[in-house]
Specification:
Shape: globular
Helix content: 25-40%
Structural class: alpha/beta
Number of helices: 7
Strand content: 5-15%
Order of helices and strands: HEHEEHEHEHEHH
Length: 199
């Protein structure tokens, strides 16, 4: 019964892809802060495939749907993806996004690959764009196809920020900032941008 839900969601994604003229869609496991452990609102891969691991990339075409993840999750993903319409693609090299090479090989020239640009770093967007450009593939970073289909999506977190106590943090905020500034000075850096909420 549950697997039928994932197959229906996959069919819904494919219908939207066809409507928008996309040959492939990338769904990353991150949130707009590019974190690995994300709030339920951003756990699109879990909603789409049933896979509950913390990291991975889903790639969907009209004929294939796969989840790229690392060896921590091979057994779990094999079990959770069973009969879902999604295949496990085992990452062979840590920290290497092999789905990019797969897409470059499979998507036709002048094809379009979509992704939700809010969930991809600037560096990854450049890598995708540069790699695809060599094959004449276009990248569309305005392709959020999850939101229109995820009707019971959990709301965004609304908890108030709070100060982490020193007994848990190990040192004060002032001490941490001072250490960062010392390192910045040694590197001759003027700015340090932090985006991940755990940072």
């Amino acid at each position: 019964m549950a697997t039928n839900i994932y197959r229906k969601r996959l069919a819904g994604i494919r219908a939207l892809m066809k409507k928008k003229g996309l040959d492939a869609l990338i769904v990353p496991s991150s949130d707009p802060h590019l974190g690995e452990y994300v709030p339920d609102h951003w756990r699109a891969i879990r909603w789409l495939t049933g896979f509950t691991g913390s990291t991975g990339n889903v790639v969907i075409t009209q004929k294939f749907a796969g989840l790229w993840t690392d060896s921590r999750y091979f057994i779990q993903a094999t079990d959770q993806l069973m009969n879902s319409g999604f295949e496990l693609v085992r990452l062979r090299i840590p920290h290497t996004p092999e789905h990019i090479e797969w897409l470059t090989d499979k998507v036709k020239k002048e094809g379009r690959v979509g992704a939700d640009g809010r969930l991809i770093s600037a560096g990854m967007a450049r890598q995708l764009s540069d790699t695809f450009e060599t094959k004449g593939i276009r990248l569309d970073l305005r392709s959020d196809l999850i939101t229109p289909l995820w009707k019971d999506r959990p709301p965004l977190p609304a908890e108030k920020a709070f100060t982490h106590q020193v007994k848990f943090a190990g040192e004060t905020r002032k001490e941490k900032i001072s250490r960062i500034r010392e390192r910045m000075a040694a590197m001759k850096a003027d700015w340090q941008l932090l985006t991940a909420t755990d940072d």
